[in-house]
Amino acid sequence: MTFDHKKIDAILNSIFPLPKEFGSVNYDYEFEVINENTLRQAIFEVDPFAYICYGASKLVIISPKIENVVIKIPFNGVYYSIEEDGSIVWEPFHWAPGSDNTNYCLAEYEKYCRLKTYGLDCFVAKTCLYKTIDKVRVFLQEKVILNSESCYSNTFPSEKSKSIAQKWWSEGVIHIDPEWIASCLDKYGKSKVERFLWYCDNIDLDILEDIHSSNIGYRVNGTPVIADYSNFLD
Question: Is residue 162 predicted with pLDDT exceeding 80?
Fold first, then answer.
């Protein structure tokens, strides 16, 4: 991956050190980021075109100025559940499927490295550990156009591939959008897709467990790719 260190560092320097409570999610998947407005304003000061989005376990910073990558920062590994009496119970993450069970960004990076050893990394977005700031590991990932951003109009899988993908769907072989799988068949070939599905069934059993329209998409060159594969709440 190629990226502009100065622009990335300017964004990171604007928000670090992160607040102690950085990133929280409640048990009902109603997400909130502590000091979100403060973070947005800080980033805006150095890059008015950048914006942030987040899921359950990480913050993602996207900037049109940084053409090739997005910045991913893991949340602090804390979530809360609301008890029947209305009280809040805070607990640490402990489900991340990697060497640090509180860090889903790291889990994603480790999955990418493992896929690379099998020659199957084409199916997932390239990920690298960029640097550590204040004991927080910051990751970069190649930029992807997500299905949730209506990129289907840019993809035209062949009828043969769509037929195979639909057959796999009806037989329960896949549980991912058949249109996306059909694109994989066109771009990577049936043999490689079958090897990837075998890998997901035998080597990394949770890599496809959190796949939805905001986690899969296409690279600028049209190749299908999974952008978020850390599987929150493994």
Answer: yes
Q: Once rounded to an integer, what is the mean pLDDT over residues 189-203?
A: 96
Q: Is residue 65 part of a domain?
A: yes
Q: Does residue 137 contact residue 106 with C-beta atoms inside 8 Å?
A: yes
Q: Hey, how many other C-beta atoms are within 10 angstroms of the C-beta on 103? A: 24
| pLDDT 10s digits, 98-118 | 899 989 999 999 999 999 999
Kindly state whether residues 73 and 170 are assigned to the same domain.
no
Report yes or no on whether pTM surpasses 0.85: yes
**Cα Rg of the chain (Å, integer):** 19
Same domain, yes or no, for 128 and 151? no
Query: How long a stretch of residues is the chain?
Result: 234
**52 and 123 both lie in a single domain:** yes
Could you tell me what percentage of the chain is helix, strand and coil, using 3-state DSSP and rounding each to the nearest 5?
Answer: 35, 25, 45
Contact (CB, 8 A) for 174 and 197: yes
> Phi-psi bin for 159: left (phi > 0), alpha (psi -120 to 50), beta?
alpha
Contact residues for 54 (Cβ-Cβ < 8 A; gap 6+): 23, 31, 33, 60, 75
Q: Which domain holds residue 219?
A: 147-226
What is the count of structural domains for the chain?
2
CA distances from 132 to 11, 37, 129, 135, 192 (A): 14, 24, 8, 6, 35
Per the DSSP assignment, residues forming a β-bridge with 70 are 141
- The pLDDT tens digits for 43-76 are 999 999 998 988 778 999 999 989 899 999 999 8
Q: Is residue 233 part of a domain?
A: no
Same domain, yes or no, for 103 and 185? no
The answer, yes or no, to whether the previous bond of 17 is cis (omega within 30 of 0) is yes
